[in-house]
Amino acid sequence: MDNQTENRMTIDRVAALCGVSKTTISRFLNGKYENMSAETREHIRQVIDQVDYHPNRSAQRLKASHSKLIGCVIGDISSPFSALLLKGITTVCEEAGYQVLFADSGEDPHRECRAIRGFLENRVDGLIVNTSGDNDEFLLELQRGGMPLVLADRQLLSSDEIDTVTTPSKSAAYDCVRFLLSQGYTRIAFFSETIGAISPRILRRQGYEKAMEDLAGPGVRPEVYEFAADDMVSCKSCLRIFRRKYPDERIALLSSNGSSAQHLLVALKELGLVPGYDFGFCTFDDWNWLQISRPGVSAVALATVDIGAKSAELLLERISGERPANARAVNIELPSHFVIRESTPAQTV
What we know:
By secondary structure, the protein is α/β, with parallel strands linked by helices. Helix content is 46%, strand content 16%. It is built from 14 helices and twelve strands. It has helices at residues 3-8, 11-18, 22-29, 38-51, 57-64, 80-95, 109-121, 136-144, 169-182, 199-215, 232-245, 258-270, 288-292, 304-320; strands at 69-74, 99-104, 126-129, 149-152, 163-166, 187-193, 224-227, 251-255, 280-284, 298-301, 331-333, 337-339. Strands 2-1-3-4-5-11 form a six-stranded parallel β-sheet, sandwiched between helices. It has a six-stranded mixed β-sheet with strand order 7-6-8-9-10-12, with helices on both faces. Strand 9, helix 13 and strand 10 form a beta-alpha-beta unit. Helix 6 packs parallel to helix 14, helix 9 packs parallel to helix 10 (199-215) and helix 11 crosses helix 12. It is elongated.
């Protein structure tokens, strides 16, 4: 084989000739034969010998300089959702030999940007972002500039160009409203901490509104109540307003997530109201304490740990080159399921 042909031979071409991934060739060249059959090893060796492939050592030295660090920005580190998400992320990353650096944006887009810039200064190999919203262009610039990046649970509102792992927020909210109507509730409201640009809250509100328009009947309109996460007075005020509007009807509320549900349940208790009696009560996030509360709370169970794990897997594929930087972004929606408990009883005749 002449020198010109030899110089054109790349690891990508070797992988194509062998019918395996670039990552598999890289593992072979580095003597990492775990989970590689003897037949595969021999086939790769024969192809490499035949084409006289010699890896680019300069590129290998550059690759060896990777920090083995992953930067992860979380919207609200105090939420049980975040703990479950981080469990999935760290499990996958640590098994692959990576350490994970965490930052809490506090749902503030400016803090989110500062945290990401700090990670970049520490030369992280990739980023997982549970974005607070309003940073679409910044994140797209990072991705287009070659930074491996995955969005966990929250997606861009303007584009689908970044790898994303989510759950079916809109359709699940629609199904919750359908269920509550079937239980005999005549007025259903959507309650949430500040929605802002946070995509799951937006999509759940949209699913709720669509279901009310389609299914609730003439004269019944969607009602959305927002309250600040740290403002129990506002939360209780929203509940009072909704209760007083319909004193003679069966009313129910759909909470946007577990954090909102926690505030709402505390507020209901302080108001002397009982879920499942004074209010039908349904939420997203089936956290453990919802299962043991009395009454038990009906909830949309999300695969939160799996969201974190899948996000980490997608990121590591980008970092390793198994999916190159120019490969099309993937958007994975992991399934959820609805758990019915005592907080949403059927109407008795």
